[in-house]
Amino acid sequence: MGKGRKERVVPLWQTTTKCISDFMHENGIKDNDYLLSGRNVKHLTRSGGVRYRIDCIVKRAATNCLSLKNKSVTPHVFRHSTAMSLLQSGIDISTIAIWLGHESIETTHKYMVADIKLKERALNKLHEPDLNAADNRYHATDDILQFLNSL
Predict the structure, then answer these.
(1) Residue 22's pLDDT is what?
(2) N or C: which end of the chain has fewer CB within 10 A?
(3) Rounded to a whole number, what is the largest CA-CA distance in the chain?
(4) What percent of the residues of the chain are helix, what percent strand, and what percent coil, each to the nearest 5?
């Protein structure tokens, strides 16, 4: 169950599926049970429980990866990272919108605006103009100059 109480199905790599399956087996979680549950409830709330579990995992990981120490990692960070990875892999925005469950492609468009790497790659595909070259200037033909003068 996701944001807006929408249920979403997303594909997973086989290695991810194996890790989840192993986790479920090790923790006695049945197929229809919640993957993450709290002490007093069947499932974790999005606002508290899931965030708390992520904070614990990030804190543990920060002992080996110091750059995580002061990072704020939320469920949305995973979602945003997935969207950016898809975008940087060349997946079209319509497919990403479907993946994220966006009703409007405009919502997904913000990921494109934010991606500086995508902008850099686009810029690198262009030839840098030689602003000093005399032949780079536009030279209007006599017909065009005559037309403009007649205005």
Answers:
(1) 93
(2) C
(3) 86
(4) 55, 0, 45
Dist CA 107 CA 111 (whole Å)? 8
Q: What is the CA radius of gyration of the chain?
A: 25
More confident residue, 133 or 104: 104
Taking each helix axis from N to C terminus, what angle separates 75-88 and 116-125, rounded to the nearest 10 degrees? 10
What's the structural domain count of the chain? 2
Q: What is the pLDDT of residue 147?
A: 87
Asked if the structure places residue 147 within a domain, the reply is: no
CA distance 57 to 64: 12
First to last CA, the chain: 65
Position 39 in a domain: yes
| H runs (alpha helix) in 4-90 | 14-26, 49-61, 75-88
For residues 50 and 81, what is the distance between their CA atoms, to the nearest angstrom? 17
**Domain coverage including residue 65:** 12-71
Whether residue 42 is contained in a domain is answered as yes
The C-alpha torsion from 34 through 36 and 42 to 46, rounded to 10°, is -110
Strands, DSSP E only, in the chain?
none
